[in-house]
Amino acid sequence: MSSQDDDDQCKKCGEKYMSEYDAMYKWCKSCQINNLKQNFTNWTSENEKIDNLIQEMQLEINELDDMIFEWIPYDQFDDIKEIGEGSDKVHLAIWKDGPLDYDKNKNEYTRKQQNKKIVLKLYNLRNIINEFFIDQDKKYSITYIGEVLRIHGISQYPNTEDYIIVFQDIYCVKCGKIYTNIIKEWCEPCKINYFKENLIRSGNENIDNIIHEMQLKIDYKSDIIFEWIPYNQLSDIQEIGKDDFDIIYSATWKNGPSCYNDREWTRKSNKVVTLKYLYNSQNVIKHLNMIKFNKYSKMYGVSQNPDTEIYILIFQIYIVKMR
Question: Where are the beta strands (DSSP E) in the chain?
Fold first, then answer.
């Protein structure tokens, strides 16, 4: 047997990995399902229907990134807060131990997300069975399926004995509303509010309108935020070469670009950027109108030298050929 065959097969059971991704991290579906089965005796909800439901969900795992659906003791939850009203009422909470995740370095399941934020929703036994077995519309999943909520498991409220579905946190930490895009944890109202409150004006209404229009098109946390960048934010300006038409400069942007990180807007300070001067001031609107239709332009924004009144386009740093 070749070494490549060894890499494609689980050393424990001899079965072939289902994908290159599984082989890379030694995740064997057959072995993981067997491990889950062997662990069935180590937990119980003390309700046969619920136990069967959880076991069935666990045996549905198909990929290493799938969640392991669990019975979660209620004493695992801290800092429980009620939000919403009526049928929309849920509870936010902290799961102390956190979920089981497949550790790609250790090639085993561990709990590395302690104090994980989750959402709890109460159900009686009949309703929770209906949610999973009778209702044909798939509301929850252990894997990534569009905007379907990913679920961690089931628990039980000790006072009323109501059951609880434990699912991913879908609420914006800023405004408390459900994320516009749950998977990306993206809140559209907060984005609009942030740009309204933090818009730096250029003094040119046409430019400001274009910048604001471009900012409102941002729909993912990794998108570049186009901004008006005050000239005094640029330091250490140096000529670095030429492209086909212009002299190219580098500079350090002191505050740096806006970025969405861990559900908050921050800045990456002292960012090295590329500058391209627009010596014909009439071209700035034309350039910006062209750029606003290209979200992949890699441009941070526009500035202006207050002494010469020359507008400057500011890009990510890139390599130019010296001439």
Answer: 70-71, 77-83, 90-95, 101-103, 108-110, 116-123, 140-141, 149-156, 163-168, 227-228, 234-242, 247-253, 258-261, 264-267, 271-278, 299-304, 311-316
Cα 322 from Cα 49, distance rounded (Å)? 72
How, if at all, do strands 258-261 and 271-278 pair?
unpaired
- Residue 316 near residue 300, CB atoms below 8 Å: yes
202, 212 Cβ separation under 8 angstroms: no
Q: What is the pLDDT of residues 220-269, one digit of tens each?
A: 667 788 899 999 999 999 988 876 667 889 999 999 998 877 667 888 99
Cβ 208 vs Cβ 216: under 8 Å:
no
**How far is it, in rounded angstroms, from Cα 68 to Cα 54?**
10
Q: How far apart are the C-alpha atoms of 200 and 301, rounded to whole Å?
A: 11
Q: Which domain holds residue 119?
A: 39-168
Structure pTM?
0.62
Question: Which of 114, 135, 168 is the last residue before a domain boundary?
Answer: 168
Rounded to an integer, the average pLDDT of 190-211 is: 86
Residue 229 falls inside a structural domain: yes
Are 213 and 105 contained in the same domain? no
Phi-psi region of 197 (alpha: psi -120 to 50; beta: other; left: phi over 0): alpha
**Pairing label, strands 227-228, 90-95:** unpaired
- Evaluate whether residue 91 is within a structural domain: yes
Contact, 156 vs 164, CB < 8 A? yes
What is the CA 169 to chain-centroid distance, rounded? 12
Residue ending a domain, among 168, 197, 215, is: 168
User: What is the pLDDT at residue 151?
Assistant: 87
